[in-house]
Design a protein that fits this description.
It is a single chain. By secondary structure, the protein is mainly α. It folds into 2 domains: 5-127; 128-162, no CATH class. Helices cover 49% and strands 9% of the residues. A hairpin with a 6-residue loop joins β3 and β4 (140-144). The radius of gyration is 18 Å and the shape is globular.
Length: 162
Amino acid sequence: MHITSEVLRAAATDSASPAWETIWGQACHQGTCDPDSAALLPWLATTAADFAGDQQDTPLILAGFITADATAADRVTYAEKIEVLRALAGDRLPEASDDHAFVHLLQAILGSEGNEVWGKELDRLNDGEADVQCPECDEETLLDMTAENPDIAPGQPCRALQ
C-alpha cells in the first residue's frame, strides 16, 4: 500500500475529495483491508477529529473497516487512536444523517471494538441483505430481507434439512 502525502493532504482538507476514493482503494479491496492500512489509523483519528459533523463519516467508517481487519499487534500499537475513533463514531451516531449513515457508523464502532463479523458485514442491511447462519446445521445463507416471500422464516427448518 502506498498513498502519497498529496493524496492524504487533499483528503484531510475536504471530506468530499476524490482523494478518499484513492485511499479506500489502496487500504481496502473487496471486503478486506491491507494489513499495512493500520498505519493510517493515527492519520484517520486526527482527520476525523478535525472535521465537523457528517464530514467525519468517511474517515470513521474507513477506520472501522481497517480496525475490523487489524492484527492483534496493530490493535495494541494503535489502541489509543482506535479508542479515539470509536469515541468519535459513538458521538456521531445520534447525529447520523440517515439510516444508511447510522448503519455505517454503528459498523465502524463494532469494527473498532474488534467485531470481525458485524464490523465488516452490518452494511449489508443497507442493501436489504443479511448473512445468517442456521443454528442447527451451521450453513450460511444470504437472506434477502426485501423479498415478499423470504426463503427462511423463524421456526421453519433450514433449506439444508429439507
